[in-house]
Design a protein that fits this description.
Order of helices and strands of chain A: HHHHHHHHHHHH
Distance between the termini of chain A: 47 Å
Largest interface: A-B, 51 and 51 residues
Number of helices of chain A: 12
Strand content of chain A: under 5%
Structural class of chain A: mainly alpha
Oligomer: homodimer
Number of strands of chain A: 0
Largest sheet of chain A: none
Chain lengths: 225, 225
DNA sequence: GATTAATATCAACACACGTTGATATTTGAA
DNA sequence: TTCAAATATCAACGTGTGTTGATATTAATC
């Protein structure tokens, strides 16, 4: 049941990073837990956040349980409630794309019109495939958008106010351009859904470069008509 | 046992001629319900299916409760369990796109290469926007794909074995064409997600024709390179 | 009319969930 | 040292869930 949390704890941190040491003790032994505060520097809060991000991104909001998150982090469920006071607040704390990843995505819109289709396609899809820090919050929002209006709003905001706005900083600012950027983003989200959520074989089994090569010319037509 | 379910769901939304006792009793009166079998010809099973399809398509699998479906259909929850023996089986009975709607989508791939981008885009998006019989099962699968592997598999099958296969009947059958059809479908799914699930304003507020006009040339590039 | 099967409701089960209050242990400062 | 705050667990609560078994009412068949 454990997800890509190990990778994550190596990469570590997100917008909530406190800049302290890592080492991330995963629990797998059914140890008879001692009761009080643990000795040494405490990093449990971060472990809970990582576990929550991983769970929410794979199971969605409703199907993710506080108890499961707590178990993943090797912690009692009540402690999770003590840190973040409700499941809703924990979800909110988890859904934020780190600025660095966002910048990498929006920078792709800059540059000559010639290669814009490929640049944008590659930036977004590669970020999603290789950067758990960027993809997990996005997947959490996407999956959460189904059940939680909060998540839909957050994803809307990310796409609209951050990704698309960041794109338009490098483009013209008329209604037509806005629409084209919106449709292009939607298309790329579709490819992400097909690959990572639904896992349609034709799209999911192909190497990412093949997908990019196929997709880019269509995006080019859309973005540089 | 979903034997008769598919047939029934095809018959259902005919908007006219239900033959005999229509009535369509939606709950609105807090009537003290009588207990046994209701008089007249019974159509409750269909009402349950309709309510379930609507619920699953808007709330997703996990958040949809048997009790809510039963209430929508004006029926006791236990009766739902008697008809379909579990929530899983009810979900399975609901997720099937009627053949007529499917045919309308796949037929669009037929014809001259010139207009294929627009034809396909229009067929899929319009079917989704105007035809609840087609869109509700699809949305149910899409929303369910997050939490239920069953739903992801069903949606995979629909896209892969039905929609894409139906498309390829009218096209060449090499690996490259298959990939292009897959990517095109994924892109259109992305637009559906942006409009109907996440409701990104830039894409969702525009009239459908504007979206189609913008999208079609990109699909054309992809499908007739 | 009598029997049987289908349709319907009701009451309750066991279980998992989010959440809470009491309590134990450690840390860090006074 | 002393003591409050932070960190941790435990036991339990109320609620809502899918599901079940008993039972009532009607329709269809003989």
């Amino acid at each position: 049941m454990s997800t890509g949390a190990d990778i994550l704890s190596v990469i570590m941190g997100s917008t909530e990073d406190r800049g302290i040491g890592m080492s991330a003790d995963r629990e797998d032994a059914p140890a008879p837990r001692r009761r009080g505060r643990r000795p040494g520097q405490t990093e449990t809060r971060q472990a809970v956040l990582n576990a929550a991000r991983a769970r929410f991104s794979t199971d969605g909001f409703t199907a993710t349980t506080i108890r499961a998150i707590a178990a993943d982090a090797g912690v009692d469920a009540a402690l999770v409630m003590q840190f973040f006071k409700s499941k809703d607040e924990l979800f909110g704390a988890v859904m934020s794309v780190p600025p660095a990843a966002l910048e990498r995505m929006t920078d792709a819109w800059q540059g000559p019109r010639d290669g814009i289709g490929e640049r944008v396609t590659r930036a977004l899809l590669e970020a999603f495939e290789n950067d758990a820090e960027a993809s997990e919050p996005l997947l959490a929002m996407l999956r959460g958008a189904i059940a939680k209006e909060q998540a839909a709003a957050q994803l809307r905001d990310f796409l609209e106010a951050r990704l698309m706005k960041g794109a338009q900083a490098h483009l013209r600012d008329d209604a037509d351009t806005r629409l084209r950027v919106g449709v292009a983003s939607a298309m790329l989200v579709g490819i992400i859904v097909a690959r990572s959520v639904v896992r349609v074989p034709t799209v999911a089994d192909e190497p990412l470069d093949t997908i990019i090569t196929t997709t880019a010319p269509a995006l080019q037509t859309l973005l540089a008509p």
